[in-house]
């Protein structure tokens, strides 16, 4: 039987603790995720420095950093390049690149040096069929307790949708704060889903109960109104 030396990449799972690591970054050393205890974190990887899609993404992340922080969310980037490459690339972005009205963009969040691919392997960022030496565009949403709450993976050729990344952070915090679920394409101010009761009979009884702003389409599918003002007041105070 033929054997190979190819490593088997594993992915952390939603609901598990984020894999622990220490790393050097453009903002100094970090211990992850302990340095971010009490905060939400978006940990994301990009394939390589000095590449166009990654440049557009880093400029967008940097331009939106304050917006993410409004939701107690920090950004941490990673690629398998070295620290000096990171520094040179980020300096080039600030001094030379103007894109979609963004210019003089300074990246202040940490960018991890991962030339050994230790972190990338822990998080399953090296994907078969993409590259053996570049991390795909992975995004991990990690909550204040260090638990992975959502993951999104993109191929090397596809830039991320940043409206969606922010929407996910807001939606996760909303579901935690109000014990609800969010329907397809949910945005703050839209109706939210009331969790299904434990049995059909209980659910039907609840369906018939009058409650302002509640709407039931059937026993298993009920929604209620939740204003954007109420959502923002609750999640931005944390």
Uncertain runs are: 1-5
Q: What's the arrangement of strands in the largest beta sheet? A: 5-4-3-6-7
Task: Report the strand count.
Answer: 10
CATH architecture tag of the largest domain? 3-Layer(aba) Sandwich
Q: How many distinct helices?
A: 6
Largest sheet: 5 strands, mixed
SS-based class: alpha+beta
The CATH superfamily of the largest domain bears the name Glutaredoxin
Strand content: 15-25%
- Rg over alpha carbons: 21 Å
CATH class of the largest domain: Alpha Beta
- The percent of residues in helical segments reads 25-40%
* Oligomerization state: single chain
The span between the termini is: 57 Å
- Give, in order, the helices and strands: EEEHEHEHEEHEHEEH
Number of domains: 2
**Mean of residue pLDDT?**
90
Please name the CATH topology of the largest domain: Glutaredoxin
Written description of the protein model:
This protein is an alpha+beta fold and 238 residues long. The protein folds into two domains: 21-173, Glutaredoxin (3-Layer(aba) Sandwich); 179-235, Antioxidant, Horf6, Chain A, domain2 (Antioxidant, Horf6, Chain A, domain 2). The protein is built from six helices and ten strands; from the N terminus they run βββαβαβαββαβαββα. The longest helix is centred in the first third of the chain and has 18 residues, at 52-69. The radius of gyration is 21 Å and the shape is elongated. The termini are far apart. Residues 1-5 have low confidence and may be disordered.
């Amino acid at each position: 039987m033929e054997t190979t030396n190819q490593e088997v990449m594993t992915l952390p799972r939603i609901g598990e603790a984020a894999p622990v690591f220490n790393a050097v970054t453009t903002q100094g050393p970090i211990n992850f995720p302990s340095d971010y205890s009490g905060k939400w974190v978006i940990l994301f990887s990009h394939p390589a420095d000095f590449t166009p899609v990654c440049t557009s993404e880093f400029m967008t992340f940097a331009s939106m950093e304050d917006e993410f922080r409004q939701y107690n969310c920090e950004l941490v980037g990673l690629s398998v390049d070295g620290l000096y490459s990171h520094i040179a690339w980020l300096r080039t972005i600030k001094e030379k690149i103007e894109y979609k009205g963004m210019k003089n963009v300074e990246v202040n969040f940490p960018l991890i040096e991962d030339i050994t691919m230790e972190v990338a392997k822990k998080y399953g960022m090296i994907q078969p069929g993409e590259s053996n030496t570049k991390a795909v565009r992975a995004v991990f949403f990690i909550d204040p307790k260090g638990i992975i709450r959502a993951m999104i993976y993109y191929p090397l050729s596809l830039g991320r949708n940043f409206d969606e990344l922010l929407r996910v952070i807001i939606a996760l915090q909303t579901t935690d704060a109000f014990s609800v679920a969010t329907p397809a394409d949910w945005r703050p101010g839209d109706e939210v889903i009331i969790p299904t009761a434990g049995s059909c009979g209980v659910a039907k009884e609840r369906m018939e109960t009058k409650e302002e702003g509640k709407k039931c389409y059937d026993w298993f599918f009920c929604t209620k109104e939740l204003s954007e003002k109420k959502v923002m007041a609750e999640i931005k105070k944390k």
